[in-house]
Amino acid sequence: MVEWSENERSIISNIFSNLDYNDVGPKALVRCLVVYPWTQRYFSSFGNLYNAEAISTNPKVAAHGIKVLHGLDRALKNLDNIKATYAELSVLHSEKLHVDPDNFKLLSDCLTIVIAGKLGSAFTPEVQATFQKFLAVVVSALGKQYH
Amino acid sequence: MLSNKEKDLIKEIWERLTPVAAEIGADALLRMFASYPGTKTYFSHLDISPNSSHLLSHGKKIVLAIAEGAQDISQLTVTLAPLQTLHAYQLRVDPRNFKLLSHSMLVSLACYLGDEFTPVAHAAMDKYLSAFAAVLAEKYR
């Protein structure tokens, strides 16, 4: 089981309590689709993804980004049992969505960069390390039910 | 593959960062050490605490090398030849670590440049740093 210090819990909780989901969610997904274009393979129903401009103004991408970001709320509320919390979502991503679990890391890296851009120097090395630990645990849990 | 537009963008960004090379480099290193403690094993002979002169001078060296490569990306193999030899025969840093420093560098850039570090700039930079790392590892075996 993953251990979280009081300091780590507080760092994670602070990041989320000051988060504008409607801004960060879309930005993270847009960034993922632009920086790692092969991830677009999962979004053929989203319409125009031809270039960065189109992706960043695509309403379906924005809506989906918000949805995915809110998916992290579950981990936030269940820090001590992230693995079980994401079992169902893991099955969904494997059996129904057929998403290569390597993609979870790509999106989580983009999310880290978006938040770094927003927080600037407040996103210290310590805050970054804690946030990345959190995301790594979620990513691992999402990949657990693949077989 | 890097388009000409991307090469220009990368060159322009690193030119701007050259005056703060030590600051950016040290920041990236600190981020890497905090997130990936295994990377510290390569620096046991240096003082890598925040603001140490070792950290700043080492960070500066790294950023200036990256900036120099950005001046003419098509010549990376030529520009990096001495560093290739250094890393392959002397330093022998496991190339997996290049990815870790690259990621840390991208975060440093995001913090420093804010909104200016657009998705397009990020994509170009990620590609450049990957190419840089690949060239650096060319003489390993």
Describe what this molecule looks like in 3D.
The complex is a heterodimer of chains A (147) and B (141). Chain A is built from 9 helices and no strands. With 147 residues, chain A is mostly helical. In chain A, α2 (21-35) packs across α8 (102-119) and α8 runs antiparallel to α9 (125-143). The longest helix of chain A is centred in the C-terminal third of the chain and has 19 residues, at 125-143. The model of chain A has no long low-confidence stretch (mean pLDDT 96). Chain B has one domain (4-140): Globin-like, CATH 1.10.490. Chain B contains 7 helices and no strands. In chain B, α1 (4-17) crosses α7 (119-136), α2 (21-35) packs across α3 and α2 (21-35) crosses α6 (96-113). The two termini of chain B are 24 Å apart. Chain A binds chain B through residues 30-31, 34-35, 52, 55-56, 109, 112-114, 116-121, 123, 125-126, 128-129, 132, and chain B through 27, 30-31, 33-35, 103, 106-107, 110-115, 117-120, 122-123, 126. Chain A: Belongs to the globin family.
Describe the secondary structure blueprint for this structure.
The complex is a heterodimer of chains A (147) and B (141).
Chain A: H1 6-17, H2 21-35, H3 52-57, H4 59-70, H5 73-77, H6 82-85, H7 87-96, H8 102-119, H9 125-143
Chain B: H1 4-17, H2 21-35, H3 53-71, H4 76-79, H5 81-91, H6 96-113, H7 119-136
Domain Globin (chain A): 3-147
InterPro entries (chain A): Globin (IPR000971), Globin-like_sf (IPR009050), Globin/Proto (IPR012292), Hemoglobin_b (IPR002337), Hemoglobin_oxygen_transport (IPR050056)
Family (chain A): Belongs to the globin family.
Would you report the number of β strands of chain B? 0
SS field, number of helical segments of chain A: 9
Determine the number of helices of chain B (DSSP H or I, runs of at least 4 residues).
7
What's the mean pLDDT score of chain B? 96
Mean pLDDT of chain A: 96
Number of domains of chain B: 1
> Which radius of gyration of chain B do the C-alpha atoms yield?
14 Å
Oligomer: heterodimer
The number of distinct β-strands of chain A equals 0
User: Strand share of the residues of chain A?
Assistant: under 5%
The low-pLDDT segments of chain A are none
First-to-last CA distance of chain B: 24 Å
Radius of gyration of chain A: 15 Å
InterPro entries (chain A): Globin (IPR000971), Globin-like_sf (IPR009050), Globin/Proto (IPR012292), Hemoglobin_b (IPR002337), Hemoglobin_oxygen_transport (IPR050056)
Keywords (chain A): Heme, Iron, Metal-binding, Oxygen transport, Transport
Pfam families (chain A): Globin (PF00042)
Protein name (chain A): Hemoglobin subunit beta-1-like
